[in-house]
Amino acid sequence: MKGKTIVLNAHLDHVPPRENWSFNPYEGRLEGSRVYGVGASDNKSGVAAMLEIAELLSRAEGSLRGRVVFLFTSREETSLGKEEARRKAFQGLKADGGICLDTHLLDEGGKANLVVGCRGIMNLTLTVLGRAYHSSEPEKGVNSIYTSMSYIQALRKLKLPRSKRKPPSHANLSVTKIATNGWATRIPDKCTLTINYRALPEENLEKVRSRLLKLASKKCREGFKLESVEKAEGYRLNLKEPIVKASLKALKELGLKARPTISRGWIDAASFKLKAGIPMVGLGTPTKGQAHVPDEWEDLQCLETGAQAALTATLRFLEG
After folding, report:
1. What is the pTM of this model?
2. Which range of residues forms the domain containing residue 267?
3. Helical H segments across the chain, by residue range
């Protein structure tokens, strides 16, 4: 088939539901303009939109000026087996551009978010060592929790980088888990922190790790071990990329005021760009704030508008 090739992507997996759901997360509910259920927004909405787009394009197959590939991926929400899954998914895949339907389009201010990149991510564990002793004489031990607190305080004072490139982006860091091998009457000699770092799209993750390592060597005098558990590079597209231009044109046609942006969370579009060489934007259906939360829901207006935007952008890209 002559013409360009575009690939559309959404992921099939979801984060397992935790406690605090007010109903069975797997039963699915339609109430008013909302569809409730685990993964309803992230990313079953994208999957549903792609199926509808496939149905609509199948009726106009003879008039399409190019080729559309629908690629549904798994293991987006976990690092377990992700590299192998992406390697197999990208094997033989060639496309001139792509759309990831895993980013929210509509913002509170009425603007439409066109994602042209995302931040990188790195999860690390820092095991802080101390010296155990009976808690009746705490001064004879070294409390690994207290040492960890000192490290956490130092982390919070770090000056994290900001990018002045358009669209702007900034890094952030959070301690998300803490655990010890402690006993009620023993000073703990081991404390493990989980650190989540969100990097600039172009930031070198190894340099980030080195910076955290240097800080640990200053604060953790009894010893420590810093390990990278998971990491994924971010990406940034040039705003002159044809897929970016086509998406901006599509949003304008739909009467939406577009705003190119960098996704704060990591998205699979980064894998397409960095591993398959396919420039991909985020133009999706999810409802803002509904990813990974109890009683997750998808707003039908977000679903409809996101699907229309992705379809229109696809057609404009193939015409260009």
Report:
1. 0.90
2. 5-118+234-319
3. 44-59, 82-90, 144-156, 205-219, 242-253, 269-276, 300-319
